[in-house]
Amino acid sequence: MNTKKEQIIYGLILLIFFCWLYFVIIRLITPESFLNNFFYFFSFNFFIQFFGFLKKIFFSILTIFWFFIFFVVAYFYGNLIVRKLNLRLTKSEKIFYSIAFGFLAIVYFTAIFGFCGLLYKLFFRIIFCILFLIAFANLIKKIKIYSAALVDYSKEIILKINIYQKIVILAVLPIVLVNILMSISPEIFYDSLVYHLSAPNYYIMHRKIVKIEYLMHSNFPLNQQMLNMLAMLLDTEILAKLIHCSMFIMSAIILFLTAKKFFSIDIALLSSIVFYAIPMLAFNSWTCGNDAALTFYFCLFLNAALNYLDSSDAKILAFCGLLAGACIAVKYTGIFSVSGLCAILVLFIILKKEKLKIKLKKLFWFFIFLIMPMMPWLIKNYIFVNNPIYPFLYSIFGDYQLKEFGGGGNIMNTPLNIFTFSFKKIFLVFWDNTNNEPIGIIFISLLPLIFLYLHKNKKLLILFLGFIISYFLWFLGTPQFRYILPCFAILSILIAYSFSELSNKIKSLYLLMAVLVIINFFCYNTALYKNIKIADYYLAKENKDEYLSKQRALYPVPPYPAIKWINDNLADTALILFIGESRPFYMQRKYISYSVENNRQPLIEYLKKSNNSGEFYDLLKLKKITHFLVNYKEAIRVNKGYDTFYWDDKDRKIFKEFWDNHIKLLYFKKSVYVYEIVEKNSDQKVDNLLEILSIYGWHNKILYDYFYSKNMYLNLIDELEVYQDAGFDCAQQIRYFKNQI
Hints:
There is one protein chain. By secondary structure, the chain is mainly alpha-helical. Helix content is 68%, strand content 4%. It is built from 37 helices and 5 strands. It is globular and about 90 Å long.
């Protein structure tokens, strides 16, 4: 340090920083949870789980083969586009641009065949094998060059980093391990089972992309769902999980390449580590969600934006538009993340000393390329539901099957901050959300540091401004971290720069980053991994059916046992109406489901269209509905927040008369019941449990008390088994009721 004054300032900064760090840790972390998860991870049990994972990998060799084919095809055909355009990018950047544009080509290739009604597994497998053979024949000649380049690049990186940086890299390896472990586990993520997987699976069932009733998510942008659909056409949902997981890994690598090019290798390393350690993104990469996919395209968009600001290359500007559009084509909320950098690019073009005609031409093509990735879904929505941006602006285009709740005005029927704006909240929302959404302690601990060094680098100011614009727009919507996760890539660079500057004076400060990564991992990643209870699956104590049949973290009251029974026992002509349940994935029979979030429920809508039980029965026959699947526990859980059973006395009366005359109980397990619709119920009347819940209140105890009062011991045992799956000790009560039978 040059002067005593600088030493004092630096000392004060460190003192304030460590006080803040202490406050964050004691507020967010408990020593007990850390130690419990630490010992769990380093236990012999976890070690054996890893070998169980390797065994699963061995038996998933066909999935790995298709994963390899998918990436070879994506890279080769995407590279044809990148090479033709002759972009001024590094060789490493070109690899990921090629993969990204290969992904986009595959998305629209799959969509075209989907709209044409050609969703046949054999058809797609043959086409992809042909595409792979062509690609592999061309790439095999260059494999030695690629391998040598990769080895040389790795050696260069290793030689440039010091021992402290290597320790930080080692701290990240457990995160990589757990992410890979979860990538081949059976899918239990709620959103995947509702629409990320179920919508493409519905299309495969019908051999065509068709309108899906009562599922607004099927009218969202479907880029990632097309990749999921392709994965299931080639193999299974596990391939879709592997692809999504790989997109998170590639995002961290792209961020590394970007920060290395525009800042330094030190900042690049820290950026990618801080980013990869975000628990929320890691959790999403374990699933067939779309946040990791959105982040992948955003990281490339960030790279392209910085490249354009450096070069003013019109071709790169077009790529900026295309990549920003690709983000929105994955998820509507991608607009929050890309808006900041898009505003920066537009401002840069306007302020640049060029003729007005050239500026207008650049802006025109930028926005044309931005809208292109969304066009197929806008057109599809207009044809299917008369609203290209469904479910937004429903008061203008129509509220097709939407149920209003919340306060979004005429924009969307969910609460929006634009109508309850608060300057105080805009500054506090980051801390408030931290307790509810697991972004981890690294961001909240290190974020204040970014204000110390913003003035030192022009690109930092540009990135900061881009983030602030995105942050403000995000806050005006529904400010949840999952709607702005990609922008954490920008924050990662800002944090990395500040931490690097702070560490330049004391190299051992890097050890603090390693400690934070480790604390983050054990308190968030390991905790969720343990709570999901995947151990028995990898230890071969549970097969896939048994794993999917038990309640666990993120997987409440699973309908899987009933779905499997339907798949095994009902005819192919069966059509099942879901009631109180919205997760139809794994169903191999045709069905009508719905989303609890914003959609009306088909059961209630059919009742409202009927004047009596006879008309209701005829309407079900007209729609060819043969069975009901009713998940009572899930109905209780979601009705409190979403009012899914919004029927009135007239509706309930019609339903009660219909139930008494036309319903036959076929099966129940874990609070999920399967009923058959019959012409005339001559057997003993079936208990109308939905009516019981409507009368006495939507609480779990209502069902238990009702079964107890009626001496329905099998139902009582079933209820207790649900509690047992949730972690309660019900063994004694279960034994008691078994003895009563």
